[in-house]
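wait is this the right file?? whatever heres the structure
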C-alpha cells in the first residue's frame, strides 16, 4: 500500500526542541530523550545544534601528556593509575621547553587549543611554578590553553587563571550512583568542589564522562543530568567511549552498542545546547560512518593528533580525509585575530601530510 500523500510531513516530524539552557533536568526527562526513535532524536539534536553552532565546523584540540603514569588515584579505566600494571612507561613532569616545542608543532599543524594533562591526584605546590610557565608560554603563541592536573585548591585555580589558563578539564566520569564502582580514592563531591573552584576563578570548564564502563542506561542519563544541572554548563563536554586497556580492571567489560553511544552524544547536545561536545577517547575504534553520525548528532570537537594521552587516536591525516569527505571545516577562533594561525588551521586540513603530529610522553 502506498503511503498516504495527504498526511503533512510535519505530522511525522518531531517538534524541534527549544534549545533553552536549562539546569533543572529530571531523570525521567533525560530517559525520555534516550527513548526517542533514533531518527527523531538525531533530528532534534541536529536542530538544536544548528541553533547554536555552525553545522559544518568542528573545533580541534591537541593533547599532550606532560606527566605520565604512577597516579595515586585508582580510576578503574585508567592505564596511568599506579594501582594497575599496564606496562605503561612512567614519565616525570616534562620540561617547560619540551612542552613549548610540542605546542608550537601542534599550532603549525592546525590546533587552536593545546591541552596539557598530568597524571596527578592534584598538583603539588613545588610543581606550580613550572605549570604556570607552561601556561604562559603556550598562551603567548596564540593558542587557547587547557590543563588537566587533578583536584585543585581554590588558590591553585586562581594562580592558573591569572597565568592565562583558559580551560580546566576535570571529568565527572559517570553517575554519582555508579561512581563508587569506578573510583574509590576520591569522592564525587571532591570533583564537584574542584569544578566550583575552577568556575569561581573565572576559567572555562571542560567536563564530561566515560561511557561503556559497564554502567546502566540510567547511569548514562544521570551523568548527563549532573552535567546539565551544574550551576553553569561546562563550555566543553568530552564524551569518551571506554578504551579497554589490558591490566586495568575494566579490560574485559562488555562493549557498548554503537547506537547507544551516538544517542548519548545526541542527548548531550540537546541538554547542553551551547557547549562544545567532544568526541574524545575511543574515537580510534569508531569507523568513519559512526564518527559522521556523531557529528550529525551534535559532536563538534575532537582531539587531533596521533595520540590522545596514552590511548590511540586516529592519525591526523585520517581526520583530514574524513573532514574532506564530510565537508567539515575546522572551527575558526573568532576571539583572536591571528590570521597566520587561521591560515595554518585551514591548511592543515587540506594538507594530506601523513607524518604524525606529535607523540605524547610515554
Ligand atoms: S584518570 Fe586521572 S586521576 Fe584517575 S588514575 Fe588516571 S590519571 Fe589518575
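ok assuming it is, sequence goes like this
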Amino acid at each position: 500500500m502506498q503511503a498516504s500523500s495527504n498526511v503533512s510531513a510535519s505530522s511525522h516530524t518531531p517538534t524541534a526542541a527549544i534549545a533553552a539552557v536549562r539546569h533543572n533536568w529530571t531523570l525521567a526527562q533525560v530517559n525520555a530523550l534516550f527513548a526517542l526513535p533514533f531518527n527523531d532524536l538525531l533530528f532534534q539534536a541536529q536542530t538544536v545544534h544548528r541553533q547554536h553552532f555552525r553545522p559544518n565546523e568542528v573545533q580541534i584540540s591537541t593533547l599532550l601528556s606532560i606527566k605520565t603514569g604512577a597516579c595515586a588515584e585508582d580510576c578503574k579505566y585508567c592505564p596511568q593509575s599506579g594501582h594497575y600494571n599496564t606496562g605503561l612507561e612512567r614519565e616525570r613532569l616534562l620540561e617547560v621547553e619540551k612542552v613549548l616545542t610540542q605546542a608550537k608543532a601542534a599550532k603549525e599543524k592546525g590546533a587552536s587549543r593545546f591541552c596539557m594533562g598530568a597524571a596527578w591526584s592534584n598538583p603539588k605546590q613545588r610543581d606550580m611554578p613550572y605549570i604556570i610557565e607552561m601556561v604562559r608560554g603556550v598562551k603567548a603563541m596564540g593558542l587557547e590553553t587547557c590543563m588537566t592536573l587533578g583536584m585543585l585548591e581554590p588558590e591553585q585555580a586562581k594562580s592558573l587563571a591569572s597565568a592565562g589558563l583558559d580551560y580546566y578539564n576535570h571529568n565527572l566520569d559517570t553517575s554519582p550512583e555508579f561512581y563508587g564502582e569506578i573510583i574509590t580514592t576520591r569522592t564525587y563531591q571532591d570533583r564537584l568542589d574542584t569544578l566550583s573552584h575552577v568556575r569561581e576563578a573565572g576559567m572555562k570548564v571542560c567536563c564530561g564522562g566515560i561511557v561503556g564502563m559497564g554502567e546502566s542506561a540510567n547511569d548514562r542519563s544521570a551523568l548527563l543530568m549532573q552535567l546539565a544541572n551544574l550551576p553553569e554548563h561546562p563550555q566543553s563536554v568530552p564524551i569518551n567511549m571506554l578504551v579497554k586497556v589490558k591490566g586495568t580492571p575494566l579490560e574485559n567489560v562488555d562493549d557498548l552498542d554503537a547506537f547507544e553511544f551516538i544517542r548519548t552524544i545526541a542527548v548531550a547536545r540537546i541538554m547542553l545546547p551551547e557547549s562544545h561536545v567532544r568526541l574524545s577517547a575511543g574515537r580510534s575504534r569508531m569507523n568513519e560512518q559512526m564518527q559522521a553520525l556523531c557529528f550529525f548528532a551534535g559532536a563538534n570537537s575532537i582531539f587531533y593528533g596521533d595520540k590522545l594521552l596514552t590511548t590511540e587516536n586516529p592519525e591526523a591525516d585520517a581526520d583530514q580525509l574524513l573532514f574532506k569527505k564530510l565537508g567539515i571545516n575546522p572551527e575558526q577562533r573568532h576571539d583572536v585575530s591571528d590570521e597566520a594561525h587561521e591560515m595554518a588551521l585551514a591548511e592543515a586540513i587540506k594538507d594530506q601530510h601523513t607524518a604524525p603530529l606529535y607523540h605524547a610522553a610515554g
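The pocket of iron/sulfur cluster is lined by residues 71, 73, 75, 78, 80-81, 119, 150 (CB under 6 Å). so i think its the right one actually
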